[in-house]
Design goal:
It is built from 33 helices and 33 strands. With about 775 residues, it is α/β, with parallel strands linked by helices. The protein folds into three domains: about 230 residues, 3-Layer(aba) Sandwich (Rossmann fold), CATH 3.40.50.740; about 220 residues, Dimethylsulfoxide Reductase, domain 2 (3-Layer(aba) Sandwich), CATH 3.40.228.10; about 120 residues, Barwin-like endoglucanases (Beta Barrel), CATH 2.40.40.20. The two termini are about 30 Å apart.
Length: about 775
């Protein structure tokens, strides 16, 4: 039998701490996976459900966007993927009786972990204005409430339509269609907070805002650089791909302020060597960089590559690919002059690295013909994130490593369809060509003015300019920066609406009125009038495939995301809308037919996705070395080198996930690989820094962020943990530390919150105990 949810909210600031581990997965991961799944689903349901995860005839894991290999293992899932599935397929239920027993005031005191552990929401719920309890509401009345509020707005731009990365292609396409037919481009999404910097940089330099490699390229690479990423916790199936790459002869450089167990050694639980042996050492060279020093590192590597080319005798492989540069790139001479001027002293200050380790990295680079660079939030959430990623593009262009098998850019996306949502038009700044295609297909004039991204949406609600907030999935309040400001902004709205499977913090920080629309999960069978339906998703490498749930829905009144959008759109837009919303909700193949006529690469969509494993979207730089940029070529860029300056007596903090967490969903209170158990309110500090600052291991402190405008933010009651992070750097979990990041502190060019470079003052002697273990930030 599945276990019951926790009755009381556990204290989260009194963890047990042991030394961090130096390997990931293995037999312990199998045990943790099965225990977590059985607690939520029971034994039989665990077996039936997990064996369908990421299978060609099964459902896409609701966790990360890492692609599936062509030949799949029977257990094609990781520990965190199994936890994500178990959380969705849980036998626990949140019924109207639950809301009758728990007031909004009560729920607002609960942690995000406690809320999520209560189970699946089974009926639409409504919070009337002035009430302190949600109450059940019929679907038709719920849609009427939304329609009333949207029609009462002075402008469509007073509405915000947010999207989470788990939304299917079909639902995302319908959602943006509804928003634009309503009259707004206010379509913020979770990409605004994660890989927006990647998309901005790659679009300008290569012409396509996505990665250029496929899974097979990893197996053909000579060198893989993993920068600002922790695959062991955030994308565990990536470790299997890296292991295979090593077996094929690749070497790996890891660039990270934190040593991560998965990148040190991987014990693949699908192999005897992984279960009972030593596993595979993945990292050949570890560059323990200071936070924010990556641009300086790659600029210096590029300088050294250019110098190697200048000094080449003609023997051996060329240091740069002069033919590729001449034929396919723009701006090389200007960039080369800037790179050659890069100062060693500045590089060492910015990176905290020794010169010899950088030169060892250079030797590995010059010995490699095919190079891939992978990255994630550790690079994208800095003020200078966009120029950092542009510098990585410069690095790859110098040696012709774009459009070559086994080489390219590999931004590793987080949520399972976050890339697909953007492909489907979930973007506040849509391309004119996309809007033209939409207008031609559906016969209405979509708005052309740019809409609001996440940060601008919060400002608009804060200032009273946006009054209705609708979220398709996600946990907006806990995912966004400046917690107190965000929560106050949400409470100013006239109506907040969340399409959700489970409770989270966003359901208890509401507008004057609030609605929860319970929806089907990926694991569940979707029966519509046209029969059993499936949806599609796009992974982090541009592969599109079908996802088919098989479990019975958690409740008889649940609607699918496409059905919710279609019924809501008809109610709001009325009979004047010529869009066949009823037809779309009846048969998802009709949605895919329209997508095939609007979105490039989806021609013959239904036929392509019916093939086992799906299909690959075109990518001009990868496929034919064509670059759809303003110059028609791949662009070198020479931005000034930037890095955070940290005053004396301060540390540079990055926000991170624990191993028992996926984005804002907290599965448990352990971070096994880092040695943290039964707690979340911890701050990881280098022992030498701790000694200089007088921070005793096991003591308590408040974290106070300091900003250039003189403002401060405080997060109280964190236990100090001495940890082998880079000197001058610290780390703590989000969403507990989101409160430290001001709304206006964003990356240049992408407007992404700078959650990885927060200057903090650590005030020892901060409060501890149960009263601070559960905070409003959850």
């Amino acid at each position: 039998m599945a276990g019951k949810p926790p009755a009381g909210d556990p204290v989260q600031d009194a963890p047990d701490v042991t030394p961090p581990q130096t390997s990931a997965a293995g037999l312990p991961a199998v045990g943790h996976t099965l225990r977590a799944a059985q607690r939520q689903m029971g034994v039989k349901r665990t077996a039936l459900t997990l064996l369908r995860v990421n299978q060609k005839d099964g459902f896409d894991c609701p966790g990360c966007a890492w692609p599936e290999p062509g030949k799949r293992h029977t257990a094609e899932f990781c520990e965190n993927g199994a936890k994500a599935v178990a959380e969705e397929a849980t036998l626990r239920r949140v019924t109207p009786d639950f809301f009758a027993a728990h007031s909004l005031t009560d729920l607002a005191t609960r942690s995000g972990y406690w809320l999520g552990q209560q189970g699946r929401i089974t009926q639409p719920m409504y919070l009337p204005e002035g009430a302190d309890h949600y109450e059940p509401v019929p679907w038709e009345r719920a849609f009427d409430i939304v329609a009333e509020e949207l029609r009462a707005l002075d402008s469509p731009d007073e509405a915000v339509f947010y999207t989470s990365g788990r939304t299917s292609n079909e639902a995302a396409f319908l959602y943006q269609l509804f928003a634009r037919e309503f009259g707004t481009n206010n379509l913020p999404d979770c990409s605004n907070m994660c890989h927006e910097s990647s998309g901005s940089a790659l679009t300008e330099t290569l012409g396509v805002g996505k990665g250029s490699v496929l899974l097979e390229d990893l197996y053909r690479a000579d060198l893989i650089i993993v920068a600002g990423q922790n695959p062991g916790t955030n994308h565990p199936r990536m470790l299997s791909a890296l292991e295979k790459a090593k077996e094929e002869g690749a070497r790996i450089i890891t660039v990270n302020p934190l040593p991560e167990a998965g990148m040190e050694r991987f014990k693949n639980p699908q192999t005897p060597r992984g279960l009972a042996g030593r596993g595979t050492a993945l990292t050949d060279l570890f560059l323990q960089i200071r936070l924010g020093g990556d641009q300086a590192l790659f600029r210096t590597l590029n300088r050294l590559v250019l110098e190697a080319s200048d000094n080449a005798s003609g023997a051996g492989p060329a240091a740069i690919d002069a033919e590729f540069i001449a034929e396919h790139t723009h701006g090389f001479e200007e960039y080369a002059a800037e790179a050659r001027a890069q100062d060693w002293d500045e590089t060492l200050r910015a990176t905290g690295l020794d010169r010899d380790v950088i030169e060892r990295a250079l030797a590995m680079i010059l010995e490699s013909k095919r190079i891939i660079v992978c990255w994630a939030m550790g690079l994208t959430q800095h003020k200078h994130a966009v120029p950092t990623i542009k510098e990585i593009v410069n690095f790859l262009l110098l040696r012709g490593n774009i459009g070559r098998p086994g080489a390219g850019v590999c931004p590793v996306r987080g949520h399972s369809n976050v890339q697909g949502d953007r492909t489907m038009g979930i973007f506040e700044r849509p391309a004119p060509a996309f809007l033209d295609a939409l207008e031609k297909e559906f016969g209405f004039a979509p708005p052309r003015e740019h809409g609001l991204d996440v940060v601008r949406s919060i400002r608009a609600m804060r200032d009273g300019h946006a009054k209705v907030f609708v979220a398709m999935g996600g946990n907006f309040v806990s995912a966004t920066p400046d917690t107190e400001v965000t929560e106050a902004a949400m409470r100013r709205a006239r109506l907040t609406v969340h399409v959700s499977t489970k409770l989270n913090r966003s359901h208890v920080v509401t507008g004057a009125r609030a609605l929860i629309f319970p929806t089907l999960g990926r694991t569940e069978r979707d029966l519509q009038g046209g029969g059993e339906q499936f949806v599609t998703v796009e992974d982090s490498m541009g592969m599109v495939h079908a996802s088919r749930g098989r479990l019975e829905p958690a409740g008889p009144t649940l609607l699918s995301e496409p059905a919710i959008v279609c019924r809501l759109a008809r109610r709001v837009l009325g009979e004047d809308s010529r869009t066949p919303w009823e037809e779309f909700g009846h048969d998802y193949a009709t949605i895919r037919d329209r997508i095939s006529r609007v979105v490039p690469g989806f021609e013959d969509f239904e036929a392509k996705v019916s093939r086992p494993g799906g299909f690959t979207l075109p990518h001009a730089p990868r496929d034919s070395r064509r670059f759809p940029t303003a110059t028609g070529k791949a662009n070198f860029t020479a931005a000034p080198v930037e890095y955070p300056r940290v005053p004396e007596g301060r540390l540079l903090l990055q926000t991170i996930r624990s191993h028992d967490q996926y984005n804002t969903t907290i599965y448990g209170l352990d971070d096994r690989y880092r040695g943290i158990r039964n707690g979340r309110r911890v701050v990881l500090v280098n022992p030498e820094d701790a000694a200089d600052l007088g921070l005793a291991d096991g003591g308590y402190a408040d974290l106070v962020s300091e900003w250039v405008d003189g403002s401060e933010r405080r997060a109280p009651g964190f236990r100090i943990v001495h940890y082998p992070t880079a000197r001058g750097c610290a780390a703590a979990y989000y969403p507990e530390t989101n409160v430290l990041v001001p709304l206006d502190s964003t990356a240049d060019g992408s407007n992404t919150p700078v959650s990885k470079s927060v200057v903090v003052r650590v005030e020892a002697g901060g409060a501890s105990g149960p009263e601070t273990g559960i905070t409003a930030a959850g």
